[in-house]
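Intended use. Records like the one below are meant for learning the mapping from a protein sequence to its folded structure. Do not use them to infer anything beyond what is encoded.
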Amino acid sequence: NDEQCRLLDRHRASLVNNITHVDSILDRLISASGGALRSNDDRLDQIRNAGTDCAQARRLVDFLPSFGPTAFRDFLDAVHEERPNLAQPLRESSVLHGSPVGPEKSEARVADQQPAPAKPTRLAARMLQMRLRDYHKDQAESQQLYDYFSTAGEEAT
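Structure written out for the chain above:
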């Protein structure tokens, strides 16, 4: 996405100078990629072998657009966990330019993957009412039997 690349370029200096846990961000990107990014990917080795935290962060920002369509959002989520103030300007800029990112978007993505719970039909609701009625009826009968036998035992003694 061109807009995401522009945001990365605009905030590049801040990201490069302030991201310190590149490995945890990479782990998050790998697990969130759904197989699009693998732990043995050469790009990840280039990032990890870059040396200093700044050099690793620089490589990460360079490679991020090539990590797949959800990588930018996943990257911002990971950065937000580490340094919320660092991710916030990117999230705000992204929302202003029409491509919202952040927890709301991530939750929506997860919700899209899960089927919506089925609404109970009239038949299912009626069956549930009947089961509840039978349950309460059984409870009442059990209480009556308990009362009868407990008083019968007292009379016999």
